[in-house]
Amino acid sequence: MIDNRRNFLKKMVATTVAIPFPNLLLSNENIQAEKKYPINFFTKPLDKYGNDFMIDTLKMGGVDGLDLTVRPKGFILPEKVAEDLPVVAEMAKKNGLFLEMMVSNITSDETPHAKNVLKIAAQQGIKHYRMGYFRYNDDEKAKETIAHAQTQIQSLIEINAQYGIQGGYQNHTGNYFGAPLWDLIGVLEKVASPWISSQFDIYHAYSEGYRSWEVGMEIMAPKIGSLAIKDFTWEINNGRAKIKKVPLGQGIVDLDGFFKNIKKMNITAPITLHIEYPLLEKYEENLSLIEKQKIIVGKIQNDVQFIKSKLHQYQLI
C-alpha cells in the first residue's frame, strides 16, 4: 500500500501536478493512533556522550524518539553514516524509541554526502530530516537569496521522493532565510511538493514576531511536516535585549496559543523537543556520569511532561 502510494507521489512530482499537501505528509503515514504527536529529542546537547548514555538517558527521560544530529560535528558524521547510523537505529529500536527524525546540514543535492545520508537514513526508517540553512548576506539582495534558496530546495525533491524521506526547513531567528516566515511560505508554495515541508519552530516564530506569529503559522499550516518547541525570555544587558533560553513554561513563548492553534488548524506532525538551556550547571560538570545523568533525565522529564499536559489540555491526544 505504502509502495503504491510512493510510486503515485513520484509520478505526481515528475508531472508537477498540484496536489493537496496536508494529506500527503509522511508524518501521517507512520504515526500510530496513540502517537499522533510523538515527542522526539533533538540530540545536540547529548552529542558529546556515547551511544549507551544517550539512549539510556532518553529512555528514562520519557521521550518517544530521537531527532538525531547527522551532520558535521554531530552525533553521526555524514561520512560515517553507513557505519554508525544502523548501530544507533538498532539500539533505539531495542529500547522502544523511534528514530524517525534527524537534523542535517543538507541544503541541496550537491551537499557533500547528501545522497548517501538520505539513502541510509531512509533505510533505517527515518522519515523526516531537517535541512541546513540559507542566510541573507551583504553580497546579494534579499530577493536573490530567496531565489537561490528556492533553487537549492527544489533540487532535493527528486532524491527525497526516490528514498521516501521528507525534508523540513526550520524557521530560525536572525539573518536567516525563513526567519520572517513569509519568505519560506512563498518558496514552499512555489515548490509545492510533499517531500519538502516546514519544521515550524514556535520559539523562533515568537521571537521574530511575538504579535504576528499566529498569522504566519496559519498560512504555513498546510506545509508543516514537524513541530519544534522550546521557550525563552528576554534579558537586558548593557541596554541590549538578549534571549535567555529556559525550560518549557518558564518563558514568554505563547505555548498555550501554539497548542491551541495545532488543534484549530488540524496539524498532525511529530514534535522535536529542543533543550538549549544548560542541562548541567558548571559546578555539576565535575559530578560522576551517573549523577550527571540523573540531573539531565530530570530536566528532560519536566519538559516532556509539560508537552504531554498541553497535548491533553487541548485534546490533541
- Radius of gyration, taken over Cα atoms and rounded to an integer in Å: 19 Å
What is the helix fraction of residues, given as a range? 40-55%
Spatial separation of the terminal alpha carbons: 26 Å
Full CATH superfamily name:
Divalent-metal-dependent TIM barrel enzymes
Shape, principal axes of CA atoms: globular
Strand order of the largest sheet: 1-2-3-4-5-6-7-10
The CATH class label is: Alpha Beta
Question: Could you list the spans in which at least 5 consecutive residues all have pLDDT below 50?
Answer: 1-33
Largest sheet: 8 strands, parallel, barrel
Order of helical and strand elements = HHEHEHEHEHHEHEHHEEEHEH
In short:
Helices cover 42% and strands 16% of the residues. With 317 residues, it is an alpha/beta fold.
Please render the helix and strand layout as text.
Blueprint: H1 2-15, H2 26-30, E1 39-42, H3 51-61, E2 65-69, H4 81-94, E3 98-103, H5 114-123, E4 128-130, H6 142-154, H7 157-163, E5 166-170, H8 182-191, E6 196-201, H9 202-208, H10 213-220, E7 224-229, E8 231-237, E9 240-246, H11 255-264, E10 271-273, H12 289-313
Parallel strand pairs: 1-2, 1-10, 2-3, 3-4, 4-5, 5-6, 6-7, 7-10
Antiparallel strand pairs: 8-9
Structure report:
- This protein has twelve helices and ten strands.
- It is an alpha/beta fold and 317 residues long.
- The protein has a single domain (41-313), classed as Alpha-Beta Barrel (TIM Barrel).
- The strands form two sheets. An eight-stranded parallel beta barrel has the order 1-2-3-4-5-6-7-10, surrounded by five helices.
- α8 links the parallel β5 and β6 (196-201).
- α1 (2-15) runs antiparallel to α7 (157-163).
